[in-house]
Design a protein that fits this description.
Helices cover about 35% and strands about 15% of the residues. The protein folds into 2 domains: about 200 residues, no CATH class; about 35 residues. α3 crosses α5 and α7 packs across α10. It is of the alpha/beta class. The chain is globular. The strands form 2 sheets. It has a 7-stranded mixed beta sheet, with helices on both faces. The longest helix has 18 residues. The protein binds zinc ion (ZN). Zinc ion (ZN) binds next to α11. Zinc ion binds next to α11.
């Protein structure tokens, strides 16, 4: 049976999302099930749940390319209307008539609601890529991550930046139009991360009382307190700076790309070879 807006509102309220909430979203629509009307129905349900005093924020970042940009990539100019690689929900929010897009050339968050302009207008080319989430954590925000495969609770990248970890390797960037109309190349100045290690934090958030498992449609989801999860991450990373690395011995990002990565190229190549042979034998 299809899932209606009314059912979604019921699930969101039951999950504990209060009216007036400042809510960061990470959404796998597929995990929820067949929603009548698709992403726009979920968006309407969220807007009604948080009400006119509430604010919704979603990651709706834009693809960047290796620098120097080749001729093809140089033609892509980032604007407030640029589509995001972040999925159906992010793109539905971008197209909503009341949405406000971040002024940052690449990390273009999208927000709807009372604090939308305050959060988005101040996120510019001079800001850190994840500053919006850092500010939200300070503002008592909640994060809702819908779907077991949805990675992270919004604050892990903030923690990595605050810890000052540095990633080596190729520079990325994107062209955008400056406020005086010039086309300029913006260079990525944050570090990112592979993300497959981020779920290791979930039990820690839960133990500290900052996470609860909820149900939205058919999806398992987590509702977290952003200030809480950021505190947990920073405490853990002070003890163990490698904690956010994934356990895959063939992951170049975690094994090699960080200044504090412990792997070496020979080991990664060896494990990659073993994986290829195993896959061949299993066929
Ligand atoms: Zn990894």
């Amino acid at each position: 049976m299809n899932i209606s807006k009314e059912q979604l509102i019921q699930d969101l309220k039951k999950a504990g999302i209060p009216e007036g909430a400042l809510l960061h979203l990470k959404v796998s629509l597929k995990a929820i099930g067949k929603v009548d009307g698709g992403p726009n129905t979920l968006l309407d349900a969220l807007i009604e749940t948080v009400g006119p005093e509430g604010t919704l924020v979603i990651d709706s970042f834009i693809t960047s390319y290796p620098l120097p940009l080749n001729e093809e990539h140089a033609k892509t100019i980032s604007t407030e209307a640029s589509p995001s690689y972040a999925g159906a929900m992010a793109n539905a929010m971008i197209k909503h008539p009341d949405s406000v897009r971040s002024q940052h050339p690449i990390q273009r968050f999208t927000a709807i609601g009372k604090l939308a302009h305050e959060l988005m207008d101040n996120h510019t080319s001079d800001s850190g890529g994840y500053d919006v989430l850092d500010r939200m954590a300070e503002m008592d925000a909640l994060n809702l991550s819908i779907g077991r495969k949805t990675v992270g609770v919004g604050t892990t990248h903030v923690a990595i930046e605050k810890m000052g970890f540095v990633k080596k390797g190729a520079k990325m960037g994107l062209n955008y139009k400056t406020s005086n109309g010039h086309i300029q190349t913006f260079e990525v100045n944050w570090n990112g991360g592979c993300g497959r290690g981020f779920p290791k934090f979930l039990p820690l958030y839960e133990k500290a009382g900052y996470l609860k498992w909820v149900k939205i449609g058919n999806a398992d989801a987590v509702l977290t307190n952003m200030k809480g999860t950021l505190d947990v991450e920073i405490q853990k990373l002070k003890d163990d700076p490698s904690f956010y690395f994934c356990d895959d011995p063939t992951c170049k990002d975690c094994q090699l790309n960080w200044e504090h990565s412990k792997g070496n190229l020979l080991k990664v190549k060896f494990h990659s070879l073993i994986t290829i042979i195993k896959n061949k034998l299993n066929k």
